[in-house]
Design brief:
mainly alpha, two-stranded antiparallel ribbon, 2 strands, about 0% strand
Length: about 280
Amino acid sequence: EGARGVGGLRARGGPTWGLGAGGGMGIERPPRQSPALSLSRALAAVRGPCSAGKRLREKGGLAAPLLERRPENLPGQCGPRPGEIPKEEGTCFRFLCFAGKEITLLMQTLNTLSTPEEKLAALCKKYAELLEEHRNSQKQMKLLQKKQSQLVQEKDHLRGEHSKAVLARSKLESLCRELQRHNRSLKEEGVQRAREEEEKRKEVTSHFQVTLNDIQLQMEQHNERNSKLRQENMELAERLKKLIEQYELREEVRRPARPTPPPGPLPFPSQDRADVPTCLSPLR
């Protein structure tokens, strides 16, 4: 009679157990009620939603409101396929069915016990297991939330890096296009300069060839002139030689034979200019 009762079982999305007012497990037994009666009422309260949901689904009473609330029945929206229950209601139904199965197994376990104390001990043990499981789930959820926040931060960081990379890529593409245009202009300018230089080289080559041809022609003309002058000089020299020979022959013919003077001193040359032979006079 002095033990604390078990109660406080609420059907708010599933079976939950709370701590008593004194800090112990369970809730104090309501006055003027046996533990078995309060336990039966609490379990019935928990099992009620699941059983009602099953009956509604079997009879089709829950399908009509859900079909009316489907997104595809609204204008301009698309939703689940025909005959498919929405995700939220399906999750609720699965949770209620799972809770109903757990409660059924718990009731079967409690029915095997004989005394209320053993049933209370089994309920306390089950509550402790569920509480430990809930704490582990909370810890795991916190770890997952922390990991999720880290992943979100990493995702934001990667998104920022991606945006920077895209911006840098666009800048590099613009620079590449500018460099291509510059290279194209330089190439065209180089081709134009090469064409101009080739034309200048051809002009200089043609001018040099013309000048060389003129020089060769002038040299040939000078050679011909020199050969002509040489031939004329040879002819003139030959004519001069003949004239000299003729003059010498003529002088020999004109010169008279002179007697040999007697021996003795030569007289002083006091003869006139007319006595000098004409052959010794200077040529005019």
